Amino acid sequence: MRIIFCGTPHFAVPSLRQLLAEPDFEVLAVMTQPDRPRGRGQRLAISPVKEVALAAGAPVFQPAKLRTDEVHRFFVEHAPDAVVIIAYGRMVPADLLPLPPLGWINVHASLLPHYRGAAPIQWAVLNGETRTGITTMQIDAGLDTGPVLEQLEFPIGPDETTAELTDRLAEAGPSLLITSLRRLQSGDICPVPQNHADATFARPLKKQDGEISWDLSAGQIYNRIRGLQPWPGAYSHFRGRTCHIWGRPATTIPSADAGFVPLRFSPNDVAAPGSIVQGGSDYFVACGEKTRLCLEYLQMEGRKRLSASDFANGARYKPGEHFE
Fold first, then answer.
1. Tell me: the pLDDT tens digits for 131-169?
2. Cα–Cα dist 324/277, whole Å
3. What is d(CA 285, CA 323) in angstroms, rounded to the nearest whole number?
4. Taking Cα atoms as reference points, which of 236, 199, 233 lies closest to residue 112?
5. Cis peptide before 232, with omega less than 30 degrees from 0?
6. How far is Cα 8 from Cα 10, in angstroms, rounded to an integer?
7. What whole-number distance in Å separates Cα of residue 149 and Cα of residue 136?
8. How far lies 290's CA from each of 222, 256, 269, 275, in Å?
9. N or C: which terminal CB in the chain sees fewer CB atoms within 10 Å?
10. Which residues are bridge partners to 238 per DSSP?
11. What is the average pLDDT score of the chain?
């Protein structure tokens, strides 16, 4: 099978590597996003997919836009049997969709029609889902609305972060992709239309999504801490400055005779969300539904990450202080 591969981030890399290794697939070219400036020095950096393609000697195509004659001519001249597209980063114009006989095949990190969109892994963790999966599908002109080829379901660990789940799903994608392509070529698979009435959406994350609302329960905040790693991270404001926060729901709260030291309220009081309290050597933040988050690490803007106790020693909490 003659393939053009389209992708950009690390999530697409395992699938590209597998296609390059399979003797019955020929990767004609790799299309990825243009090199972009990154880091403090704003030096041009290549995408993870481009790095793998160059190492394998595969031709690389990096158009700035897809709605051009050049891009249309590229696909016509290469005449692929199928185009594999994984986290490429742009919608495919309708005029390109019918060019490959087997279609454009996508590996999507959710159990479609759930979590259509750019951030399915992040929102599954943010929403406290316990299961997710990967789906192979033929894309159409909509946003992840095309017919499904195959799916694999996976549990989400109670402490698993977006970064960890992304790596796990990325490694599971290649085998499902290869199977789907072979079955599609042999006519042994029938694409199944999605039930659009069951669709949910996973919009791209914004930096402000990381700001913690302390009115949420500690469990909900913990899901945000897990789901927003590595970007934008979960943060609040302390003494007028941004402070990134890592922690987990407190299962027990020390009693007064076990060394509970109130900074604002006693153990039997209903604490205002965002209030900071100390219990023994631990520090907690009051959350909604009378729950508390046990702080593990904190990082003020422009500073290094510290354990909760080291941060407290440096900050010297005062009675009544809270996260804003």
1. 999 999 999 999 999 999 999 999 999 999 999 999 999
2. 15
3. 8
4. 199
5. yes
6. 7
7. 5
8. 15, 18, 10, 12
9. C
10. 241
11. 93
Q: State the pLDDT at residue 258.
A: 43
Distance linking the first and last C-alpha atoms of the chain: 57
Residue owning tokens 């114009």: 93
Q: 82: helix, coil or strand?
A: strand
Q: pLDDT tens digits, residue range 191-240? A: 999 999 999 999 999 999 999 999 999 999 999 999 999 999 999 999 99
Q: Is the pLDDT of residue 256 over 50?
A: no
Q: What is the pLDDT of residues 29-84, one digit of tens each?
A: 999 999 999 877 888 999 999 999 999 999 999 999 999 999 999 999 999 999 99
Tokens in use for 122?
Answer: 């992040």
- In Å, what is the CA distance from 225 to each residue of 75, 90, 115, 178, 232? 42, 28, 19, 34, 10
Residue 134 in contact with residue 176, Cβ under 8 Å?
yes
Rounded Cα distance, 84 and 125, in Å:
26
Buried b (16+ CB within 10 A) or exposed e, 218-255: bbbbbbbbbbbbeeebbbbebeeeebbbbbbbbeeebe
Q: What is the pLDDT of residues 257-308, one digit of tens each?
A: 444 444 444 445 557 899 988 877 889 999 998 889 999 999 999 999 999 9
Q: What confidence tens digit (pLDDT) does each residue in 94-131 have?
A: 999 999 999 999 999 999 999 999 999 999 999 999 99
Which tokens hold the place of 319? 């009675």
Q: Delineate the domains of the chain, giving CATH numbers in brackets.
A: 2-202 (3.40.50.170), 207-315 (3.10.25.10)
Half-sphere exposure of 154 (CA within 13 A, CB side): 23
DSSP string spanning 210-257? GB--TTS-HHHHHHHHHHTTTTT--EEEETTEEEEEEEEE-S----GG
Give residue 259's region: left, alpha or beta (phi > 0; psi -120 to 50): left
